[in-house]
Recover the amino acids of this structure.
């Protein structure tokens, strides 16, 4: 069994680890050793004393740190890296070439972009690899992320867009649910009940898009009866530039992600 190490055990790494069914071969490392031990205990995984120790012990090394610290981490573990070990980066903004420039020649590298829904095994992830990654390791890494949701093989040039549509959008969706719930509170429902109703309706509506194969706008039109209540709400959203606001949020996220490279 290949050993898998996570350098950095923040929210995203924890979400992925929570979603994995077998944690026996997992290890984490972090800057704060006491906090690292506490996190490892909570997750039910092993704790390495240092990033270097983790890199020496593990076959697959997940870089789950902020983009600006990746270079420092790679310099720490460079002596432990071999072509038998595969780096897996979930850091935003750093493409395969940038990561390759920070490592020795011929280092196998996989780039994955998951989202926080990995914690409930419903992440939507993207994956791409360099030429040095073997087919067997690539399939193993894909299978790991398939345990925590769906995974899409896409061209690396599309990663910034994917990151916005999948990685950042849960925050926008949570805000939308909360806004709906606040409206429910305004008209007499408890916040807890209004939030549950809003979240359940959003989840079911998303499933309807996936299962029906219908275009989302066609589904929206099917709900809006002539001179009815729903069309009034749709017109109100359009009057407040709902579509433009969502597109602007995605564009801002893409531009920020691209600036990190």
């Amino acid at each position: 069994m290949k050993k898998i190490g996570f350098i950095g055990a923040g929210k995203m790494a924890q979400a992925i680890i929570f979603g994995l069914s077998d944690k026996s071969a997992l290890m984490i490392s972090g800057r704060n050793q006491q906090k690292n031990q506490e996190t490892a205990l909570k997750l039910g995984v092993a704790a390495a004393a240092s990033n270097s120790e983790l890199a020496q012990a593990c076959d697959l090394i997940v870089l789950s740190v902020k983009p600006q610290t990746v270079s420092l981490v790679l310099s720490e573990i460079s002596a432990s890296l071999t072509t038998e070990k595969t780096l897996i980066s979930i850091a935003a903004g750093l493409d395969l070439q940038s990561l390759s420039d920070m490592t020795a020649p011929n280092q196998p590298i996989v780039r994955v972009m998951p989202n926080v829904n990995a914690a409930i095994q419903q992440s939507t992830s993207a994956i791409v690899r360099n030429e040095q990654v073997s087919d067997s390791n690539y399939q193993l890494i894909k299978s790991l992320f398939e345990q925590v949701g769906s995974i899409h093989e896409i061209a690396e040039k599309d990663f910034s867009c994917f990151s916005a549509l999948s990685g950042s959008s849960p925050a926008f969706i949570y805000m939308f649910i909360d806004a709906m719930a606040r409206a429910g509170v305004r008209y007499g429902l408890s916040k807890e009940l209004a939030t549950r109703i809003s979240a359940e309706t959003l989840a079911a509506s998303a499933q309807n898009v996936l299962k029906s194969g219908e275009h989302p706008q066609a589904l929206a039109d099917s709900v809006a009866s002539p001179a009815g209540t729903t069309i009034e709400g749709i017109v109100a959203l359009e009057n407040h530039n709902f579509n433009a606001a969502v597109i602007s949020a995605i564009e801002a996220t893409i531009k920020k992600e691209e600036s990190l490279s």
In short: The domain at 162-259 is CATH 1.10.3730.10 (ProC C-terminal domain-like fold). The mean pLDDT is 94. The chain has two domains: 4-154, 162-259. The chain is about 55% helix and 15% strand.
